[in-house]
Design goal:
872 residues, alpha+beta, Jelly Rolls, 5 domains, eleven-stranded mixed sheet, six-stranded mixed sheet, 15 helices, 46 strands, 26% strand, binds 2-acetamido-2-deoxy-beta-D-glucopyranose
Length: 872
Amino acid sequence: MKLFQGCLPILILFGLVLTSVLVHAQDDQSGFISIDCGIVERSTYTDNVTKINYVSDADFIDSGEIHNILSIYNSFDVDTQITTLRSFPQNTRNCYTLKPTQGKGNRYLIRARFMYGDYDFKGQLPEFDVYLGPDYWDTIRFNSSSKPTNREIIHVLSSDYIHVCLVNTGRGTPFISAIELRLLAGDMYKESTEFGSLYLFSRVNFGTAFTTVRYEADKYDRLWSPLLWPNSTYLYTLDKVYTSLSANDPPEEVMSSAITPEYPNASININWSPHNSTDKFFMYMHFADIEILKRNQLREFNIYLNGNYWIGPFSPFNHSTVTTYSTEPETVAPTYTLTINKTKNSTLPPIINALELYTLKQFPQKQTDDQDAAVLWSIKSTYKLNTKNWQGDPCTPPEFVWEGIGCNYNDTELPRIVSLNLSSRGLNGGIDPGVANLTMIHTLDLSNNNLTGTVPNFLSELNFLKVLVLKGNDFVGPIPAGLQAKVDKGSLSLSFDDESTSDPASSCDKNTCKNKKGNKIIVPVTASVAFLFLILISFIAVWMIKKQNEHGLDIRKKQYTYSEVQSITDNFSVVLGRGGFGTVYHGIIGDTQVAVKMLSGSSLQGDKEFQAEIYLLLDIHHKNLISLVGYCNDESHKGIIYEFMANGNLASHLSENSSFLNWEERLQIVCDAAHGLEYMHHGCKPPIVHRDIKGTNILLNESFQAKLADFGLSKAFPTEGGTHISTAVAGTPGYLDPEYYTSNRLTEKSDVYSFGVLLLVVITGHSAITKNENDIIHISRLVNLKLAEGDINNIVDPKLQGNFDINSAWKAVELAMACVAHTPSIRPTMNGVVMELNDCLVAERARRENKAKKLTGLMSLNLESAYDPTPI
Ligand SMILES: *[C@@H]1O[C@H](CO)[C@@H](O)[C@H](O)[C@H]1NC(C)=O
Ligand SMILES: *[C@@H]1O[C@H](CO)[C@@H](O)[C@H](O)[C@H]1NC(C)=O
Ligand SMILES: *[C@@H]1O[C@H](CO)[C@@H](O)[C@H](O)[C@H]1NC(C)=O
Ligand SMILES: *[C@@H]1O[C@H](CO)[C@@H](O)[C@H](O)[C@H]1NC(C)=O
Ligand SMILES: *[C@@H]1O[C@H](CO)[C@@H](O)[C@H](O)[C@H]1NC(C)=O
Ligand SMILES: *[C@@H]1O[C@H](CO)[C@@H](O)[C@H](O)[C@H]1NC(C)=O
Ligand SMILES: *[C@@H]1O[C@H](CO)[C@@H](O)[C@H](O)[C@H]1NC(C)=O
Ligand SMILES: *[C@@H]1O[C@H](CO)[C@@H](O)[C@H](O)[C@H]1NC(C)=O
Ligand SMILES: *[C@@H]1O[C@H](CO)[C@@H](O)[C@H](O)[C@H]1NC(C)=O
Ligand SMILES: *[C@@H]1O[C@H](CO)[C@@H](O)[C@H](O)[C@H]1NC(C)=O
């Protein structure tokens, strides 16, 4: 019984590891411990997004309560791990204990994650301390219930045990959401960790706006946060960027984007302020040139920290990563400015792809000798000791020494256990053989328990043992000769009930024997239940992983080779359309129709836009934005594969000779398009400006659902100010924001302007620009002139023949005119546009329904009169 209970969790873990290995042979999470705190005890799962296998925290702690964050905080973009947590209303200090198999001497990344999510319904953000073993790590504070916070260090283990402890400092109940441990390979961060541990200050991936890059892209599951730096141009490539796994290089996904100053002569300036003015920083900078340089071009720069020369001149390699880092802590300063300046000879501005900042953190206190600690953990589990304070390291910190334990502290040696008092703790069974390993012990008190069996001989081999108290147990047989000899010599004081004096009541009577038999029967039952459970868990794990794999295959965005594209398009046999950058062909993948846009020639401009579009579409998904099926990025053939849109573009449906769209259909289409644009402006961080909203870029699927397409000109830009000086004006005449034209300032409001023009086109059926004898008239001027006349029928497309709700039409016209206002600040936002268009649609639908009702009413009246002629 005892044995099995002790092994159960290990068996289950083992079973899972095994199945994971079988199914996921390519994954290497062998150096990972991934704990999702607060999930169902002993449960496990593979995260849908990261493919990391998480286990419950029950095997790593035996105190605390489990909770879920409130569902209102559990939005789609919240990591599964932080939706559950374990809180610690009891005890000042509660510790998780992890024993990574690779053991001490190795370098680990240790990450603790926290999100409050009002799990206790109190709406009070707690504040508490987290310790690594005996040493203070950090204070956890929150800015909001919904904002997760992480703490991460790179740390060399000096003990086989890692303890992550949460300490109540009287400002709220401590809790934790997840713990992640990652073994780092070889020499990663080695030079820096010789000074101490590295506390993560910041780790950023420049030039991208979207998702955090982590496992599986990063083998070590470092989290690379996206960052767009102000006043920069963003560079990215789809070509391979070489990285070295042995060095500290980021993964390719991180290296394939970068920032460079907007103006060729400017420098890159990165500023930060330390959390604590005494912090000592280590920097890791990662560079790769991801533009293809011409023969006469040179990118060369120097790097300065706080105006002091740091390294250079230096030229990043072509599509290959170079990492430079601090070999010792940087000079302490109140604030830091990293300046990257191009050299005189350089024809190109500097570039940077990624940056890591760490501060030096010392964890000076030594943990208990590993062999001693192992004995205590073994005793704790063998006798199932429910001792609240047996948590964390046994001897340290001294104020939290385990109850019943005496330690010897010596500045030069690790703390050792010198006394152990387990008197009256209800121990039963034999003496744990591990006690033989407590080689420094001088006092051992096991009195008044229900220990049985013989007194083991190994006790006589404990050279420092002076006091041994065994009385009040059910031992049988004589005292081993070795012990007796020590007693006789006077070097050991022994207290023991010999059999003649022992209490008859404590010997085996019938009742206890029966009881013991009963226990024995339970063993196989428990074992088989455990076994079934194990099988079940493995089964579920296999099923979950399989399911995900199937799912993953279907939707995974894919890079196609040119020959695959040839076969998809049946050698480019059906042309769907031709645009500025190339030709669009019809294609079929499996039994799904697709559209394939091939880049014509290889103009640099076209290539940039091609890369921009793929880069964007890989990351944004919305039902009103065209979705990417795949792309082809062979040397001389570049193409993008989209979902197929059966009904072509909106412009073609508005043209003279097409079957016309009714008012409701028109409203529905612009409403869809507005939703897509709203998502780009308000659902993406930072917002994305489409820059080329017009009828031909709004595509319609088989059910006339509209989706925005053509993101080649789109730009993501840093938030807040919301303006971006663009180097080249791009867009379509007539749709282009005049403000943007004159000032070159690009904002979301530029899209709102274009959307307004589109709306006018849809309402009136006119084109954006009308050429009149010797004048060019913009549609907004045209509508403005007609507005003065006050007759909506003169404004709305005559093809509709007055078949529309008047209020709905007025509202749409007013909205469109507000969108094309000259001053960007008075134009509505896309949120506002969506709301107004919805109202228009509701009004029009109500009119149609009323009309339909009237019609059906009339019809049934007719029918009634036909079949049931009323006597008149
Ligand atoms: C994983 O994805 C599936 C299907 O998308 C979903 O049903 C399941 O709840 C997800 N699991 C987790 C843990 O998020
Ligand atoms: C929390 O708020 C403080 C003060 O407003 C700010 O200094 C700090 O950066 C914020 N922390 C986070 C994680 O947002
Ligand atoms: C960006 O440029 C503007 C205008 O030149 C300047 O005011 C601002 O400080 C710059 N921002 C940063 C972070 O350098
Ligand atoms: C950049 O610097 C070079 C040399 O210092 C100078 O010739 C050139 O005019 C500068 N260009 C701009 C745009 O300032
Ligand atoms: C800053 O760090 C020093 C040394 O690590 C510490 O003594 C001090 O309390 C810290 N100050 C703050 C404000 O955290
Ligand atoms: C970097 O170059 C800028 C001008 O290009 C100059 O103002 C600045 O002083 C330089 N910084 C350093 C640290 O040399
Ligand atoms: C600039 O290039 C010339 C010619 O290659 C070289 O002689 C000179 O040393 C370079 N100057 C600097 C500052 O690197
Ligand atoms: C620490 O241990 C060493 C070696 O066991 C011993 O020589 C030394 O005297 C001890 N120091 C203290 C302060 O106990
Ligand atoms: C005693 O310690 C050694 C070395 O740490 C270990 O190999 C052995 O298994 C331990 N013995 C017991 C009985 O735990
Ligand atoms: C231990 O022995 C005492 C006295 O024989 C008995 O009352 C008690 O129930 C036993 N405890 C356990 C846990 O077996």
